[in-house]
Specification:
alpha+beta
């Protein structure tokens, strides 16, 4: 557990966290739903584990970031998306549990230090069961002070290059129609041959490419996986699929911009996770309204052979909205009342994403 009142006076090396985390006995068992007694689960792997030096440096920076946020009286705004390998995971008996924090009258959710599940998955597949999955590291045989600064500097070496210019520079067999071209070019700049980055896998970092028009507008909203209608109405916000995804995910924006001649050029990159209040106020409002629409029964109207619904649209909320996200109109899911309807997903508004970008991209 994170002791908000005392952790701000601890150094990483002498912290209660590091006393427990520097040598861990990992016991991996195979979960099988049909086996009722947990004592009957098969234990498949056992290992002593100490994070490698390059991971320790990132874990230490995560610890300091969490500690600094608590020191600033923002323990109530902690999110697992703030950090890379070490998170501040909610740890409460009920959703109403709260604790005092320093330098603020606002009570905060109880939280515990935890290695992220993405980090522990990587540990299993690469340290405990070697060669299970192949990931490529960006940082090889060295330790850097700041992982994010290192990545940003590498990308910025090619700032101003056109898409074709980067393709030519790395002698790549790509064209403008290559799927996920913007992300692939970023991987190549970072020295990655495929699209599975070790550090990104460990930190649950998701790459998103963004195109800015010369007029400083973004055409595309940002999509996420489609949700299941029946599953969503059974969720609470605290355990919702979309809310949890946004709170635990850190995004890596690779930004391209059209110049005055219509040439798309690399503008730079930034790491981002959604601010606490945007998630727990605006996005939550959209999620709750969507749930209520499904409970009440989706209203569908037809005008000029086009179907319209009463899910919250992009003009309804400054941050998020709901819209279709299936392969085509035949890609459907069953509504709670039994009707079939095209799959939907939550989106972040293009105007909101634009507002979250570094100002230097809009000059």
């Amino acid at each position: 557990m994170i002791d908000y009142m005392n952790v701000i006076n601890e150094s990483f090396e002498e912290s209660h966290l590091w006393a427990k985390a520097q040598l861990i006995l990992l016991v991996y068992y195979l979960y099988e739903k049909e086996i009722e007694d947990r004592l009957d689960y098969s234990i498949d792997y056992v290992a002593l584990f100490t994070p490698p030096e390059q991971d320790i440096q990132i874990i230490k920076r995560d610890f300091e970031l969490i500690k600094q946020k608590i020191k600033e009286g923002k323990a109530h705004e902690l999110s697992e998306g703030d950090t890379l390998y070490l998170g501040a995971a909610p740890k409460a008996a009920t959703s109403k549990d709260r604790r005092k924090q320093p330098n603020s009258e606002e009570l905060a959710k109880p939280r515990a230090f935890a290695f992220k599940n993405s980090y522990m998955t990587y540990v299993l597949n690469n340290y405990v069961v070697p060669n299970k999955v192949t990931y490529e590291p960006i940082i090889k045989n060295r330790v850097v002070d700041s992982f994010e600064e290192y990545i940003t500097n590498r990308i910025n070496e090619y700032k101003g290059y056109s898409i074709q210019g980067i393709i030519d520079e790395f002698k790549l067999n790509y064209n403008k129609d290559t799927k996920n071209l913007g992300a692939l070019l970023a991987y190549r700049i970072l020295g990655i041959k495929g699209n599975r980055v070790a550090e990104f896998e460990k930190a649950n970092i998701v790459v998103k490419t963004i195109r800015i028009e010369n007029s400083n507008k973004i055409k595309q909203h940002m999509s996420f996986p489609a949700f299941k209608f029946k599953e969503l109405i059974e969720e609470t916000w605290e355990e919702s699929t979309f809310g949890t995804y946004l709170s635990e995910t850190r995004f890596f924006f690779v930004v391209y911009k059209f110049d005055k001649d219509g040439v798309l050029r690399l503008e730079g990159c930034q790491f981002w996770n959604i601010p606490y209040r945007d998630l727990n106020e605006e996005v939550r409002n959209v999620w709750e309204e969507t749930k209520q629409v499904l409970i009440n029964g989706l209203e569908i109207t037809v005008k000029n052979n086009k179907r319209y619904n009463n899910f919250p649209g992009s003009s309804h909320n400054p941050v998020s909205h709901v819209r279709p996200h299936g392969k085509n109109s035949s890609d459907v899911d069953q509504l709670p009342d039994g009707r079939m309807y095209p799959k939907q997903c939550f989106w972040l508004n293009n105007s909101y994403i634009l507002s979250q970008l570094n100002e230097e991209f809009l000059k």
